[in-house]
Amino acid sequence: MTNLTSLRDQWLAHWPGALTVWSKFTRLREPRWCFTPKEAATEGLTSSFAMIRLNDHAIVIGLHQIAEQGLNDYALEILAHEIGHHVYCPADLTDSARMIARLRRGLPTKEALAPFVGNLYTDLLINNRLQRSAGLRISQIYQKLTTEAPDTLWTFYMRIYEVLWSLPRGQLATGAMDERLELDAQLGARLIRSYAQDWIEGAGRFAALCFPYLQDNGQTTQKILRGWLDTPSLGAGADDMPHGLTEIEDGELEGNLHPMFDPELSGLDSDEAGEAEKDVKGPASGATSTGSGRGQRREPFEYGAILKSLGLDLDNHEIAVRYYKERATPHLIRFPQRRLPESTEPLPEGLEPWDIGSPLEEADWTQSVLASPRIIPGFTTVQRVWGTVEGQQPKKEPLDLDLYVDSSGSIPNPQLNTSYLTLAGAIIALSALRVGAKVQVTLWSGARQFQKTEGFVRDEHQILKILTGYIGGGTAFPIHILRDTFQKRRPTDHPAHILIISDDGVTTMFENDEKGNSGWDVSRMALEKARGGGTMVLNLWRKWEDIPDLKRAHDEQGWEISVVRTWDELIEFARKFSRLKYADE
C-alpha cells in the first residue's frame, strides 16, 4: 500500500520543475493535496485525480486516486499539465466562456457536451506542447488510462495524438478505424498545430470535427477519461462572473467551420473551400455561418447556457439579473463628479466656557487672560466659537424614481429572450442609483398580478430582480400601488418621477380602483404629491393624440407621453431620459 504522505513529498519535489516547463517566471501556489475521498470532495474533486479551479488559481491533486491508478511516477507530467490549464488554455474564466460559446456553435443538438469537448480540446493543445517541446511522457499516461473497449470518439481522439507525435498507428488508437476517421484525425492534428497560438479561434472548428463521433455522447470516452477530465466546472462561483458574454464576438458565428472547409487546414484555396462547403448539407458540416456577429447580442437563454457550462450554480432569474446589468452598463450616465464647496474664511461668532475636559488646543488663552488675570480652568477660561459663510452653489437633491413596467402576456419573458422593457428599466433605474436617488419598481400584468420592491430602495440587486421577473397575464394597471405609494408620501421626501413603460393597455390606470376611487383622481393626486412629474413611454402604432384617455392625461394632468414604434427604440429613450433627469451637467 502506498504511503500517501511519502507520495505527496515525492510529487512536491517535482513542483518547481513542473512550473519551469512553462516558464522560469511561472508562479502558482502549491497544489492542494487530498489524501482521502472526503478531502477531495470538499475541494470539489469527485471523479478525477486532478483538477483546476480558475476562480482561485488552485490545482487540486487526489493522491489516493493517483495511487489507485498507478500514476505515482508521473508527477512532472500531471503537474505540468494542470499548470498548462492556468497559463495557456483556458487560463481564466473569461477565455473559458469564450471557448464554450464557440464550441456550442459547432455542436448543434449536442450543446450540453461543450464542456466535455472543451476539455478534450484544451488537453490536446497542452499535451502536444508537453510531449513534443518538453519531452514529457504524456503518451504513457494515456496507455494506462485506456482500460475499456474504446468507442469511436476515443479512437478518433487517440489517433489525433498518434499523428501529432508520429507514433505507430494503433499504439494509442486501438479501436476500429476507417478512411473517414483517418482523414478527420489528420485534420484534427493540423488544427491543433495551426491554432496553437489562437486556440479560441480553432474551438468551433474542433467541435464541428468531433460532432459525428458524439452520437452516443462519447460515454465510453468519458469513462476512460474520468481521471483526466480536470476542468469539469472550472470551480466557478456566483461571484466569479466572466464579463463581455452578452455580445457575440467577431468571427464566432462562422467559427464552427468544419476543418475540411478551412483553407488553412484543408489545402484548398478559398474559392475551392467555399464551393465544397456549399455542397455539404447537415449539421455535421458545421456550415451554419450567418455573419461576423459584430454588434449582435446573445439572448438570455444562450447567455445562461454558457454560464451553466462553466459550473455557475445560478437559476434563470439570477442569470437574467446579471445579463441585463451587463447590457445596461454601457448606456448608464457617467458617475457624477464630486463638486467641492466654495472656499470660505472662518467666521468668529463669540466665546463660550472652556472646560478641563475639552482639547487643550481649543482654549483661547488671550481672551481668557483678558477676562481674568487668574486662570481657573472651567471658570475663567474660554474658547472661540467659529462659523462659516454660506456657499454660493445651490444644493442638488436627487429625483427618486417610481417605475412601472408592463409584464403582460404580449411582453417577452426577459429570462428567455431579450426584453427591451426590462433593459430600458435597468438603464434608467441604475442611472438613478448613481446619483443617490431611490427607486421603486413595480412589475405588473392583470388584476392583482404584480411584483414590487420593498418601497423606494437603493438595493441594486432587489431592483434588477423585480425588473427581470415575469408574470405574463392580462393587462390591468396596478392603480392601488400608485395610490398607496403617494398617499403615504411626505412633503419632506425627495421629489419623485413616475415612469410607466407599456403599450395602449396603460389606459386601464384611469379605471376605478378596488375601493371605487376614480383612476383619474388617483393619477392627479400621485402627480401632485410626487412633485417630479410623470412620463409614459408607450409602444403604439397610431398617434397618442388619437387616444382620448392619453390626450386627456396629457392636457389636463401634465403627463409627458413618448411613443416608440418598436420595442428596441426604448434603448434610445432610456439613454435620453437618464441624461435628462440624472446626468450631472
Descriptive key words:
22 helices, single chain, three-stranded mixed sheet, 585 residues, 42% helix, alpha/beta, flat, six-stranded mixed sheet
Average residue pLDDT: 87
Total domain units: 4
Ranges with pLDDT <50 over ≥5 residues?
A: 234-238, 280-291
User: What separation lies between the terminal Cα atoms?
Assistant: 75 Å
Assign an overall shape. Answer: flat
Number of strands: 11
Helix fraction? 40-55%
Number of helices: 22
Percent strand equals: 5-15%
Briefly say what this structure is.
With 585 residues, the chain is an alpha/beta fold.
Structure description:
This protein folds into four domains: 4-87, no CATH class; 98-309, no CATH class; 346-388, no CATH class; 400-582, Rossmann fold. The chain is 42% helix and 11% strand. It has helices spanning 4-22, 37-43, 63-68, 75-87, 93-105, 114-132, 138-145, 152-164, 179-194, 199-210, 219-224, 263-266, 270-279, 300-309, 316-328, 365-371, 420-434, 460-467, 479-487, 519-530, 548-557, 570-582, and strands at residues 32-34, 50-53, 58-62, 346-353, 382-388, 400-406, 439-444, 450-452, 496-503, 531-539, 560-564. The strands form three sheets. The protein has a six-stranded mixed β-sheet with strand order 8-7-6-9-10-11. It has a three-stranded mixed β-sheet with strand order 1-3-2, sandwiched between helices. Helix 1 (4-22) packs across helix 4.
